[in-house]
Give the backbone structure.
Amino acid sequence: MKIVSSEEMRAIDRATSERFGVPSLALMENAGAAVADFVSSHYASAKHITVFCGKGNNGGDGFIAARKLHEGGSTVDVILLADPADVKGDAAAMFAKLPVKAISIRSIEELKSERLQSLLNRNLPNHDLLNQDFLKRNLLIDAILGTGFKPPVTGLYAEAIAFMNASKIPVVAVDIPSGADADALTTQTGTIARSDAIVTFTAPRPAHVFSLLTTGPTVVAPIGSPPEAIVSGLRLNVTAAPDIAAMVAQRPAESNKGNYGHVLVVGGSVGKAGAAAMAGMSALRAGAGLSTIATAKSVLATVAGFHAEVMTEPLPETDSGTISSRALERIFELSKNKSVLAVGPGISRNPQTAELVRKLVGKSETPMVLDADGLNAFEGRTNELNGKGHILVITPHPGEMARLAGCTVADVQKDRLGMARTFASQHELIVVLKGHRTLVANPEGDVWVNTTGNPGMSTGGTGDILTGMVAGMMAQHPKNAFAAVLAAVHLHGLAGDVMREKVGEHSMTATDLLIGLPEAFRRTRKAAQENSACW
């Protein structure tokens, strides 16, 4: 799903009306209806709803949501933070259709009046806003400022935002929390309305993905713009379930293991056998038909003991129990009938082993996923890392990315988007830059943002699980490797989200993701069937 700037969104709306014949009033009607539908399904117990509206089109969306919710049986109050005469255009047309009389607030003094405060607090004794039953029965809708606004917000609007932020009542934002800069690529400070959910329209803006504007879901609702109208120069996308539907589709009844590829994991060493074992097993959990782990011969029994389902192959080793450079020809022989190579989990930084990795990457024509110490083998020698002529996927965390780029972790974190995009283009490979909002960049410079995952995944081994999953998905979909990578990253994070619900963030371990992965597939398949874009 494309991410668009606020200016591009305005152009999309214009094109939808002028080129594709969808009236602007219809777009607004659909937007307001989408908000009302979300509230009705997610806040069904909320019977007292207060809608704060500005005088612009965001307020127009709010007027429609108020009308729809009133028609559905809710008690709705509309607070217009302007003089009705100042409401123009489509918003004015929707204001005229309100089935309830709006309360027009023109000044901060009116906003703070005892009458209005009494209304907003529903006359609850002592204004006890911590009463849980009260909170369930009440809802605020923020339709003050939309994505066309540029901070800072001042005056009456700022005071209304302050009221919402001080309240404990849930808040649903229309399009974007009021006061936020829709084009921001980082978290934001200043006067911004808090939000428990966001319903935006057509396509997300950068802040929806990067700015952590809500504690709950962000829903992207289609309101009538055809795909041809959604044009963006950002070359930035967010992974949504419909984008990876083919990767999680039900399999044909006549399937067999030969249909879904064979992954060869090259990794493991004394003390790090588990990393290779996790990668090998996660390839199977992701759906690969077969998985073989080639590892240093002294740890082969340990690797084989983790999972009965994976096959193993012994490789020549160094005196320190790592894979020797003498293993190169054997690995090439093993890879002849393999779909994907996954190189690096637990492989160590031994100089001989690092030399092996560099030769393997330089000479192998088999699609490859490179991670962990496989990446560290190229520290100071990044010129040797290139994917031209074959598919090469690297999955660095910020520290590994910094070593590859010859910079600091702070430099990587300061410009994650630019770093991933530039490295992918210069080295002609796919970059999966891990972290909050993992980025997937292709050699053409397009970047996809992943919105699944949580801090509970900040534990050793989750990267090895991802390596195996990426390889496993690529093995199943050799003709669509990039989509396979997107799917693996999305499912990996979603498996973490599933397990957070079961074990919490503090107690999560890497292998918990293997338990959560079947449910992650189920949820993704369901969302794809519903054509749902939500995170």
Notes: Confidence is low (pLDDT under 50) at residues 123-127.
